[in-house]
């Protein structure tokens, strides 16, 4: 039970760090040889700087972090628990091209959505992953949702709706940072950011269900891959795909210094900012640790539990951003308490309640076929029982 508990704590800790560091990258200002966009320069302390709001190049940082695990696979062999699986072949790496492609799409769209809304709201809206994963688990993995589970998911959906409403109300007073749709009103930007974030979670839900099916596969020819192998080769495939994507964005006309996303400008901004380099380095290590822990949760529990646990990091992100604003006196990296923050707090509380109801920690209806990992999760949350 201690190992499962540590998986959960690690997922929440590294997950919150990922969100905060990724958002910090996007708002950190730096210089390049390209002419400064005046509409962006006003977001920075110096008129010759622009924020590093590059959602797609952030993807390649994520996959580079996952690729770090390739080095650990050289001397590691997957531990087998029976003689038959020992003689099965290793799952070919091209099987991991599908989840890697879904990761590219989901993370990229999610990164664009983050530029419209605060990191805390973005993180909470990613809780919609719970709903998509549960639905896909029923369809493709044959998991049964009983009344208790449906109520829990309904509460989670209500909580997410309140968080989204809070962000939309706040957006009427807060300007947006993103410039792809600079002609839109701030409220429209917030709705677009929420919509993109929720859409990205559909891609991620398909990804985590595919990953769970691989981790628990029963095949006469191949043995199930280890969590480290999945993360490492998803990182490899993801980097290959992202190089092609970034070249395409560089050649496509757009508002980022003549390109849809200018990678040359991105590299120059990185080179000219030690803070950005530090943030990227932290992100590489953090994302690798987070993905391995998430895979292990999927393997030992389920993909639904993985997404439910992941949603719990929202409060860590929110508290951290409030601390940056009020304690660190940093408007750039923090977020203030607003008139609508009570609505966000209520929404998060309902989201947590929905999570507890789904996991049968708060029992409303006894299920005839409870989740396999229910007893383990109860001991995680209440180790005394």
Question: What would your notes on this structure say?
Answer:
Helix content is 65%, strand content 2%. It is globular. Helix 1 packs antiparallel against helix 13 and helix 8 (129-140) packs antiparallel against helix 14. With 385 residues, the chain is mainly α. It has 17 helices and 4 strands. The protein has one domain. Mean pLDDT is 78; it is low at 78-85, 174-185 and 370-385. A two-stranded antiparallel sheet has the order 1-2. The chain has a two-stranded parallel sheet with strand order 3-4.
What are the SSEs and their pairings?
Blueprint: H1 2-27, E1 29-30, H2 38-41, E2 50-51, H3 57-67, H4 70-73, H5 83-86, E3 89-90, H6 97-114, H7 119-125, H8 129-140, H9 147-171, H10 186-215, E4 222-223, H11 227-251, H12 263-271, H13 274-300, H14 303-311, H15 314-326, H16 341-358, H17 374-381
Parallel strand pairs: 3-4
Antiparallel strand pairs: 1-2
Notable traits:
disordered C terminus, 17 helices, 385 residues, two-stranded parallel ribbon, mainly alpha
Q: Please state how the strands of the largest beta sheet are arranged side by side.
A: 1-2
Number of discrete helical segments: 17
Main β-sheet: number of strands, strand sense, barrel status?
2 strands, antiparallel
Overall spatial form: globular
Computed structural class:
mainly alpha
Question: What is the averaged pLDDT score?
Answer: 78
In whole angstroms, the N-to-C terminal distance is: 12 Å
Number of domains: 1
**What share of residues are in beta strands?**
under 5%
Round the Cα radius of gyration to an integer and report it.
21 Å
Portion of residues within helices: 55-70%
How many β-strand stretches? Answer: 4
List the helices and strands in order.
Answer: HEHEHHHEHHHHHEHHHHHHH
Q: pLDDT below 50 for ≥5 consecutive residues: which ranges?
A: 78-85, 174-185, 370-385
């Amino acid at each position: 039970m201690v190992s499962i508990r540590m998986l959960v704590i690690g997922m929440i800790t590294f997950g919150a760090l990922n969100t905060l560091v990724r958002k910090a990258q996007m708002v950190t200002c730096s210089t390049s040889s390209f002419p400064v966009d005046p509409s962006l320069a006003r977001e920075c302390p110096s008129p010759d700087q622009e924020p590093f709001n590059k959602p797609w190049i952030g993807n390649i940082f994520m996959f580079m972090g996952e690729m770090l695990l390739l080095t650990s696979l050289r001397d590691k062999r997957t531990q087998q628990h029976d003689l038959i699986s020992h003689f099965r072949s290793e799952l070919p790496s091209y099987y991991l091209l599908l989840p890697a492609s879904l990761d590219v799409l989901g993370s990229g769209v999610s990164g664009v959505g983050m530029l419209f809304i605060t990191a805390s709201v973005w993180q909470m809206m990613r809780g919609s992953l719970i709903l998509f994963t549960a639905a896909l688990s029923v369809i493709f993995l044959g998991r049964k949702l009983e009344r208790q589970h449906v109520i829990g998911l309904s509460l989670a959906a209500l909580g997410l709706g309140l968080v989204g409403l809070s962000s939309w109300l706040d957006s009427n007073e807060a300007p947006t940072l993103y410039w792809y749709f600079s002609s839109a009103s701030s409220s429209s930007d917030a709705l677009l950011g929420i919509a993109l974030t929720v859409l990205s979670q559909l891609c991620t839900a398909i990804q985590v269900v595919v990953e769970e099916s691989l981790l628990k596969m029963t095949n006469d020819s191949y043995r199930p891959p280890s969590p480290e192998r999945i993360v490492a080769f998803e990182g490899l495939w993801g980097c290959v795909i992202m190089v092609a994507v970034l070249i395409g964005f560089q050649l496509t006309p757009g508002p980022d210094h003549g390109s849809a996303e200018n990678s040359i400008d991105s590299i120059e901004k990185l080179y000219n900012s030690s803070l950005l380099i530090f943030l990227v380095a932290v992100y590489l290590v953090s994302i690798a640790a987070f993905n391995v822990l998430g895979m292990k949760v999927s393997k030992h529990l389920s993909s639904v539990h993985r997404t439910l646990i992941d949603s719990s990091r929202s409060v860590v992100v929110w508290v951290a951003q409030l601390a940056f604003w009020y304690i660190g006196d940093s408007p750039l990296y923090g977020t203030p308490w607003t008139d609508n923050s009570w609505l966000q707090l209520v929404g998060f509380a309902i989201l947590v309640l929905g999570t507890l109801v789904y996991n049968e920690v708060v029992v409303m209806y006894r299920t005839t076929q409870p989740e396999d990992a229910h007893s383990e999760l109860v001991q995680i949350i209440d180790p005394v029982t």
